[in-house]
Amino acid sequence: MSATPAIVLGGTGYVAGELLRLIAGHPQLEVAAILSDSQAGAPVAGAFAHLRSAYPELKFADLDAIEAVIRGAARSALFSAAPHGVAAALIDRLLTAAERAGARMHCVDISADFRYSSAAAYEAVYKHAHGAPARIREFTCAVPEHLSKSPTPHVAHPGCFATATLLAIVPLLALGLTDQRLFVTGITGSTGSGRKPIDGTHHPHRHSDLYTYGALSHRHVPEIIACAKLATGVEAELNFVPHSGPFARGIHVTVQASLAKSIDTAQALQALKTYYQDCPFVRVGDAAPRVKDVATSNYAHLSAVTNGNSIAVMSVVDNLNKGAAGGAIQWMNRLLGLAETAGLTGPAPGWT
Fold this sequence. Notes:
Blueprint: E1 4-9, H1 14-24, E2 29-34, H2 44-47, H3 63-71, E3 75-80, H4 87-101, E4 104-109, H5 119-126, E5 139-141, E6 154-156, H6 160-174, E7 178-188, H7 203-206, E8 211-212, H8 221-232, E9 237-244, E10 251-259, H9 265-275, E11 282-284, E12 300-306, E13 310-317, H10 321-335
Parallel strand pairs: 1-2, 1-3, 3-4, 4-6, 5-6, 7-9, 11-12
Antiparallel strand pairs: 7-10, 8-9, 10-13, 12-13
C-alpha cells in the first residue's frame, strides 16, 4: 500500500512537532504539508531543529497550498494540533475542500473543539462560540483503548490529563469496582502548557518546584466525565486537582475511590490486566509506574493498590505522545484500516 499523505495543523507548536517526528518513522504515512500562515515558505527545520534530518527540505505552507494538496490526493490524513477555538473553522474549511474534490479524508483533532457532543456544551466551558457546530456530529471523542471502532468518520482525541485519567478510571467504573465518586491528583510536565513561555513553564519558576492550579475547577473535567460515560454508561463525580511538575514531558495521575466490595491488591491488578489484555499500548504492572519509563513513547503504565476499603490506581503517560500526537496517530491508523501499532512501537529512552 502506498503511503497516505498527512497534513498537520499546528504551526510550530510542540504537538505539531511531535506529530512530524512520529510520522517520519511511520511506514504508511508521509507528511505532505504542515500549516503556518505566518511562516509560509519558511523551513520547518528552522522551528524544529531536531527534525532537520527527517525534513531537510520541508517548508511551512499556507491554507491555499494545503487545499491544493487535499484536492490532489484520493485520500489523506488530517491531524489538527491547532489551538482551541481556532481548530474547528480550519478543519471545517479543509473537510469541505476534500468533499468538493470527491477526496476521502479522515481527521483527528487534538484540540478541545470537537470533544463535546453539542456546541452549547463546548461554549459553556470555553466561553466562545463554536467554530463549526454542524461538524460536531462527525466526531467521536474517546481514548482508543475504550472504543473498538469510531462510529464517525473523524475523531476528537481527549487531552493528555484526560487520557491518563480515563485509562485509570474507566476499568473501575466499567467493572463496578468502585462507587462513582472519584478523587484524582495529576502532575504534568511543562510541555503540556505549550511552546509560548509563560510563568507556568518558565524554567526558573518551575524547576525544583511543585504546585497546584485549577484545583477542583479544571476545564477538562467535563470532557473526562463525558468520555467515561461513553465508555461505561456511568456518569462519575470527578474531583480533580492538577499540579505543575518540575519536568518537561510526562503525566502522573493517581485515582482514589471507595471500593464497591472488598478486593485485595492482587485481585485489583488482575482486573486491570484482564481489562487491558488486548490493548498493545497499556501495560499493568505490580510496581508503581514511573514517568521516565513512558516519556516520549505511546505506552501507558498502570498499577494499583487496595487496603480492603479503597483503591488507588496510578497511571503514567507521555503528554505529547500518548496524550496527544501518538494517540492521534493510533486513531488515524484505525480510521485508515492500518495496523493500530504502525509507527508507534518505539520504546521510551528511559533517561530523559
